Structures are given as structure tokens and as C-alpha cells.
Amino acid sequence: MKKLLWYACCCWTLSLVGASASNASPVVQLDENSTVGSAANLGTVTGSSSLAQVPPPPSPEVPAKPSNSETQDLQNQLNNINNQAPAPDKFNTYIPRVSPGFSISNPTGFGADNNLLFFGLSYQNRTRFTQTSDGEAGFGIGLGDAVNSVGVELSYSINSFGSSQSFGSGAFNAKIHKRLSEDSAVAVGWNQFAQINLGNGRNASNVQSDFPPNSYYAVGSKIFRTCEDINQPLCRIAVTGGIGSGVFLPFSTIQNAVATGTTASGLNVFGSVGVRVARPVSAILEWTGQDLAAGVSIAPFDNFPLVITPAVRDITGAGDGARFILGAGVAVNF
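^ that's the sequence the OP posted. Answer follows.
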């Protein structure tokens, strides 16, 4: 049973440069030895007391005082402007703080950073080759800055709630990711690099492990804008593609390794396509490397960071038939 993966979503700087005047204001000095010049380069002119008098500058014209009716008309115009609602933007009139995801279990190029804490739970109505339900959990933190440098995501996943392993058994995971633009990102990761096994679960003898240790991967994600307004249906399509080892290998390869007591080796491809069908909902189809999965991701609240993902796994490929899974995750900055 695969660990639950989480997925998180530009700054502009404006510089204003002031310009200085190229010539200083002229300075005039009149006395017994008159001088006329500028502040930057004063020249001296010697003259006599018969120098012509400099005429005084003309008096500025005093504007006419507006009448009471004109004053009242201007005041009414200002009141009308203040009372008017701002004109709505042509695009992106509303952008929610929480968005649905575009992957079910595959990692994506995007990741957590900037001191983001995340926690997730998942449930499946039955595990592969059994009729017993089970669950997973995970928590972690995102560090660094994926925009200005790189983001680092560290997490621990609980692989079973007692079915295949004792509760609490799991492994540590790491991911380094980089935002290439507002709509694209790449990442490399290492899942299950350090395991903690607290014992076998109640169905351990009937469960074939699908979370082999040391699963490496490299992945990239790109979001395509089919129209400008994010709130319009079908205006965002997210495509993810990657290559990895371990858990991303074909299930038959993992089965053979478990049966022979060896480590599954090799590389395999995985990918996901997510389409935002409505503001809070995206539809997802993905190939995990082992099987085909389909589901939806729902962000039911605009201002509470909860994302719910019901899906069906093992549609084709691995396992002994389709299985229902349900995941939920929250994330907060501190």
C-alpha cells in the first residue's frame, strides 16, 4: 500500500529610479561688484553703479473663487466617485486560497516549502488480495524557498493501521523541488529511505508489499491555461510525468522480488493528468507505474486548507480488482 503524498500552488519587484536635474537653478547677486551665474558654475562680471535695475517679477494671478454652486457640484462628483464600487477585473475576479489537487498518489514537481506543515490520512476499503480495510497517515514539513532557491520537503509516512504492519510502522521520505515558473516545477525525491518496523500486522501473511524501500524518482509538472479566468470550467490542465524505481516499478517486478527475498530494481515511468472541472473540483487520471487510478480532488472550503480525494485504484494493472480509496490532507504555514 503506497504512502500518501501531498501536494501544495510569484513575486514581482518594482524599482523606481529618481532623476536629478541636469542644471542648477540660476543665482543672481547684485552689489558693488555684480555677479551673475548659476549654482554649478558662477561667473563674475564687474560693472559700475549704473547697472540697470532688474524689474520685479510680475504678480501671480489670483484664481477666481468658485461659486457656491460650483463647489457643491464638485463635492457631489467626489461623493459619487467614492460611493461607486470598483470595477471588476476582466479575469480572475476571484481566486480562492485553497485549490484542489491534480494527483492521487503520484508525486508532482511542486512541493511544500516556506515552513509549511502538512498532515494527511487515507483509507481503502480493502487491501490487495484481502477483504480487510486499512489506512495510512503521514505528516511533514516544507522548508526553504522553491521560487528563489529550492524547497525541501521532509515527511514520515505510516504505511498501515495494523493490516500489513503494526500501527506506527512506516518510513521517512525526502523531496527537493524547484519552481521554474508560476505554472511549472521539477523535483527529485527519495521515498522510504529509512524504515521503522514495529512488527507484522494481522494480515501480514496475505499481503504482498507494494512499498519497497529506497524508491527514487524525478518528476516534472506543468499547468496549462486553456483560458484566463481560473474560476471558469476546464480552464486549468495539469500534466505530470516522471521516472522512478521501487514503488514505481511494475507490480509483477515487485512480487518477484518479494518472493525471492531480493530488492526490486530498475526504472519505470509514471504520470498524472488533472483537469479543473469547476472552481473547487478537479478530475484526475493517473498511471502509478503499477496500476491505473481515477478520482477527483475537492477543496470544499475557500479559507480552510482541506483537500479531499476519493478515487479508485487498480482499475487495470496491479492487484486483484479495483479498490476504493479516500484521502484527506490539510496544510498550514507557521
